[in-house]
Write a structure and sequence with these properties.
Helix content is 33%, strand content 16%. With 463 residues, it is α/β, with parallel strands linked by helices. The strands form two sheets. Strands 1, 2, 3, 4, 5, 6, 7, 8 and 9 form a nine-stranded mixed beta sheet that branches. β1 and β2 form a beta hairpin. The longest helix is centred in the middle third of the chain and has 27 residues. It binds guanosine-5'-diphosphate (GDP). Guanosine-5'-diphosphate binds next to α1.
C-alpha cells in the first residue's frame, strides 16, 4: 500500500524509520536530514541529487511538534548545539525509540507544477509531513525469533557459539551449562546464573564487534529484561518439542516465549503498522577493521534483517501484520573516511553483501537499495605522494587534535575480501572532528550522498 495521500491538494504523509546498530550513525543522520531539508528551499545546492530540491520546487520546511504521544522526542536542538560548540563535538548516541517530525512544502512536478512563462508555479504548494522514528538495530535481529521455537533457537545459537572467537568468549557459560543439563530440575537461581553468563558472553562478542547477537535487548543494561521473569538463555540438548514441566529447559522456554510476547511481537506490529519506509545504517568500516569474523557476522546480520523486510506474501512483516513498508535503503555510513573512488568501492561492497543493485538514478524506484553516505562530512578529498606515487587521501582534523591530517585509508574491497586480506587489520580510522555549524542549524550540514538517499526514500512523494 503506498503512503497516505490526503486532501484535495493531496497533502501527504510519510513515516520514515531509521535504524542501525549502536554507533552506526543514526543520531548524525537524523540531525543532518532535518537540517538539510530545512535549509534546502533557500539553498537547493545543499541537496543537488534530491530532484525536488534541484528543480527548486521546495518552498519551505520546518520541524513539527507531535502532541499526544508518550514517545521521547529526538533532541535536535541538543545535537545541533554539540555541532555548533567551539570546538564542535559529536552529539550523544541513540538509545531508544525517539520521534520527530518535519513538514516540507513543495510544488508538485506534475502538469500543473510546470512553471508558467513568468517563472511562477501554477499550483498551490503541497505539504508533506514526515514522521521520523529511530530505534536500535539490535531489535531488528530479534524478529526471526518469532518464527522459531525455543529448541530451534537454542540449536542455532549454540552452533554459532562454538565457532571461532565466540567459542573462547562462551567458555564460562557453556561450562556452567555442562554442569546443569536441560532436563535436570530447574530452579530460578540456576536459570539466573546461566542467563547472567550468557549476557556476559554477548557483551564480550559485542566488544569484538560481532553483531548477530540475540536477544537484542540483553545488550542494553537499562533494559527491562534484567528482571528474573526474563532471565533465559539457550540450552544444549533442549530437543523435546515441549520441555517437560519442572526442568531447566521448561523455565527457559517459558521465559523465551514471554520475551517474544512482550517485546518482539509488539515491536514487529509497531514496525508493520507505523512505518512506510525504512533506512538501515551499517558501519561497514568498523566490521572490516575488526577482522574476518566481525565482517562475516555483519553479513549474516544483514541477511537476517533483509529476510525480515522481504516483500511479498512470505515476508515476516506481511505474514504477521500485512506490513506496508515499500522501500528499504541500506546505507554504509561514515563514507567521508575514504576518498571518492573508495566511496564507490564502499557502495559496491555493501551492495554485494546484500546482493541488491547499487543505488543509481535509473534504479531509484527499486524497493531495496544500497548506498554509501556520510551524514556529517568531516573531511575533504586530497592527493598525496607516497614513495613517488600519487594516492588519494582524505584530510581532516582528528577529534581533540590541533592539526589536520592526511589520511590514507587503503583500498576498500568491492566484494567479500579473500582470506589473505585479513592478515592485517584493514585500517584504524581516526575519529574526525565534525564541522562547526550555525546554532540554528539553518545553513544545513555538509554531507555525502544524503541527497541520493533522500531521493530514493522521498523522491516519489515530492514529485
Ligand atoms: P548512533 O548510536 O547510531 O546514534 O550513532 P551516532 O550518530 O551517535 O554516531 C556514532 C559516531 O560515529 C559519532 O559519534 C561519530 O564519531 C561517528 N559518525 C557518525 N556519522 C558520521 C559521519 O557522517 N562521518 C564521520 N566521520 N563520523 C561519523
Amino acid at each position: 500500500m503506498p503512503p497516505k495521500l490526503t486532501g484535495i491538494w493531496r497533502n501527504r504523509s510519510l513515516r520514515l524509520a531509521i535504524t542501525g546498530l549502536s554507533g552506526s550513525g543514526k543520531t548524525a543522520l537524523i540531525t543532518s536530514l532535518i537540517a538539510n531539508l530545512v535549509a534546502a528551499p533557500a539553498q537547493p545546492n545543499r541537496l543537488p541529487f534530491l530532484r525536488a530540491a534541484s528543480e527548486q520546487r521546495l518552498v519551505g520546511a520546518n520541524r513539527t511538534r507531535r502532541r499526544g504521544t508518550a514517545d521521547a522526542v529526538f533532541p535536535f536542538q541538543e545535537t545541533v548545539a554539540a555541532l555548533a560548540a567551539d570546538p564542535p563535538h559529536w552529539p550523544a548516541s541513540t538509545t531508544d525509540f525517539r520521534r520527530t517530525g518535519l513538514a516540507v512544502r513543495f510544488h508538485s512536478a506534475g502538469l500543473f507544477g510546470i512553471p508558467n512563462p513568468f517563472g511562477h508555479f501554477a499550483d498551490r504548494a503541497v505539504e508533506m509531513t514526515i514522521e521520523i522514528t529511530d530505534y536500535p538495530g539490535e531489535w531488528l535481529l530479534d524478529l526471526p525469533l518469532l518464527a522459531q521455537t525455543y529448541q530451534d533457537w537454542s540449536r542455532t545459537t549454540l552452533d554459532l557459539a562454538r565457532q571461532g572467537i565466540r567459542a573462547a568468549l562462551a567458555r564460562d557459560w557453556l561450562g556452567f551449562l555442562d554442569r546443569h543439563p536441560a532436563y535436570a530440575r530447574g530452579d530460578a537461581e540456576t536459570a539466573q546464573r546461566a542467563h547472567d553468563l550468557y549476557r556476559e558472553y554477548l557483551v564480550g562478542c559485542r566488544r569484538e564487534h560481532l553483531s548477530l547477537l540475540q536477544p537484542g535487548r540483553f545488550l542494553d543494561p537499562a533494559s527491562a529484561t534484567s528482571g528474573p521473569g526474563l532471565a533465559f538463555c539457550p540450552l544444549p540438548g533442549a530437543s523435546h518439542a515441549r520441555s517437560p514441566a519442572g526442568t531447566l529447559a521448561a523455565v527457559m522456554e517459558s521465559r523465551f516465549e514471554t520475551y517474544k510476547r512482550i517485546f518482539v511481537r509488539p515491536f514487529l506490529s509497531q514496525l508493520a503498522r507505523g512505518v512506510d519506509r525504512q533506512i538501515v545504517l551499517v558501519d561497514v568500516f568498523r566490521a572490516l577493521n575488526a577482522g574476518e569474523e566481525a565482517f562475516s557476522d555483519q553479513r549474516r546480520s544483514l541477511e537476517t534483517i533483509l529476510e525480515s523486510f522481504r516483500f511479498g506474501r512470505r515476508g515476516l512483516l506481511h505474514v504477521l501484520f500485512g506490513g506496508r513498508i515499500d522501500r528499504v535503503l541500506f546505507a554504509a555510513t561514515k563514507a567521508d573516511h575514504v576518498p571518492a573512488l573508495q566511496r564507490d568501492h564502499l557502495e559496491a561492497l555493501i551492495s554485494h553483501m546484500l546482493a541488491v543493485p547499487a543505488l543509481s538514478a535509473e534504479r531509484a524506484r527499486a524497493r531495496v537499495a544500497a548506498t554509501a553516505l556520510a551524514s556529517i562530512r568531516c573531511t575533504e578529498d586530497g592527493v598525496d605522494e607516497i614513495d613517488g606515487r600519487k594516492v588519494d587521501v582524505v584530510i581532516g582534523l582528528p577529534q581533540g587534535g590541533d592539526r589536520r591530517i592526511h589520511f590514507f585509508p587503503g583500498i576498500v574491497p568491492v566484494t567479500a575480501p579473500p582470506p589473505g586480506f585479513w592478515g592485517d587489520r584493514f585500517t584504524e580510522f581516526p575519529v574526525f572532528q565534525p564541522p562547526r555549524v550555525q546554532h540554528s542549524g539553518q545553513e544545513g550540514i555538509p554531507h555525502i550522498n544524503l541527497d541520493k538517499a533522500l531521493d530514493f526514500l522521498l523522491g516519489d512523494m515530492l514529485a
